[in-house]
Write a structure and sequence with these properties.
Blueprint (H helix, E strand, L loop, with lengths): L1 E12 L2 E7 L2 E3 L3 E5 L6 H8 L7 E6 L2 E2 L9 E4 L11 H12 L4 H11 L15 H13 L5 E5 L7 H18 L2 E5 L3 H4 L5 E6 L2 E7 H7 L3 E6 L2 H11 L4 E5 L3 E5 L4 H10 L4 E7 L3 H9 L9
Parallel strand pairs: 4-9, 4-10, 7-8, 8-9
Antiparallel strand pairs: 1-2, 1-3, 1-5, 5-6, 10-11, 12-14, 12-15, 13-14
Helix pairs in contact: 2-3
Protein name: ATP-binding cassette domain-containing protein
Family: Belongs to the ABC transporter superfamily.
InterPro entries: AAA+_ATPase (IPR003593), ABC_transporter-like_ATP-bd (IPR003439), ABC_transporter-like_CS (IPR017871), P-loop_NTPase (IPR027417)
Length: 306
């Protein structure tokens, strides 16, 4: 059973298709990094999962339960876009307001414990209108954690934070995952931040999912290797597999092949030429993670945020 699963998810705005057959699979206990270009549909996906808007097509399951449109799942906490809080109330009172709506037992103790968890115990009585961006993000996460959710949706929680605060927020996310077993579904355009915490990545492209990769698979894909692009990728894969049985070959999008192992580029070129397979590109990759993800997203149209 997945913590989050979408099947054929579709959503349009003013006749513009934002999501088109999106299939996401988030395993329980994962920290799932959701990556895509500007306007790719990351925030829209999170709003659909959080029950904040209805989908036009497809279905969403959370912890095995089929979601009813616009009805939040009781085991899901969310911080989407800007944290929702009352500027003239203190951090504690903001938490208390939501805790009372949720009907939590011993609400004050629970709220004080959450302020301690997110590092706001000393600022609990301060009005939130005086909070810095980092403090607002911490409180937003605390609000999302009320009710002890099993699944946490975080939309750009690291956006605009200075390095020290970003590190603290990352540590908080990892601690919630490890100590409480919370499944985290997080989007961010800061790839260097995500790669420090994520166990799985989903890459959004053209309204659907271009790839779902574990952290280990990303590490392997970004290791030093040869990249070959031809117009006949299946034939090239078969020919090179036969010629270099000890090499590890993987088919990539856009008719590319990845070759791991101590293989000389000239030998690869010669082997393909002997088979009459034209080479469009042959290069050695030095393991650029950003380039890898940008390629999966379909090119560089600006920061990968929404």
């Amino acid at each position: 059973m997945f913590a989050i699963e979408t099947a054929g998810l579709g959503k349009s705005f003013r006749h513009k298709r934002v999501l088109d057959g999106l299939n996401v699979h988030v395993g329980q206990g994962e920290i799932y990094g959701f990556i895509g270009k500007n306007g790719a549909g990351k925030s829209t996906t999170m709003k659909l999962i959080a029950g904040l808007m209805p989908a036009d097509a497809g279905e969403i399951r959370v912890l095995g339960d089929l979601l009813v449109p616009c009805e939040p799942h009781p085991r899901v906490g969310a911080l989407i876009e800007q944290p929702g809080m009352y500027a003239n109330l203190s951090a504690l009172d903001n938490l208390m307001a939501k805790a009372l709506v949720l009907g939590l037992v011993d609400a004050r103790r629970t709220c004080e414990e959450l302020l301690e968890v997110v590092g706001l115990a000393d600022a609990g009585n301060e009005k939130t209108k005086r909070f810095s961006l980092g403090m607002r993000q911490r409180l937003g996460i605390a609000l999302a954690l009320l009710g002890s959710p099993d699944v946490l949706l975080l939309d750009e929680p690291l956006n605009g934070l200075d390095p020290e605060i970003a590190r603290d927020i990352r540590s908080l996310i990892v601690r919630m995952n490890r100590e409480r077993g919370v499944t985290v579904f997080i989007s961010s355009h800061a790839l260097d931040q995500l790669e420090r915490i994520c166990t799985v990545y989903g890459v959004l492209r053209d309204g659907g999912l271009a790839a779902e990769l574990t952290a280990d698979e990303v590490d392997q894909a970004c290791a030093r290797c040869l990249i070959v692009r031809t117009g006949e990728a299946p034939r090239a894969l078969a020919a090179l597999t036969e010629r270099f049985p000890r090499a590890h070959l993987v088919a990539l999008p856009d008719d590319e092949l990845r070759i791991d192992g101590d293989i000389d580029a000239e030998e690869v070129g010669r082997a393909l030429a002997e088979e009459g397979i034209a080479i469009r590109e042959l290069r050695r990759s030095e393991g650029d993670r950003e380039a890898f993800f940008v390629g999966l997203m379909g090119g560089h149209d600006g920061p990968a945020s929404e």
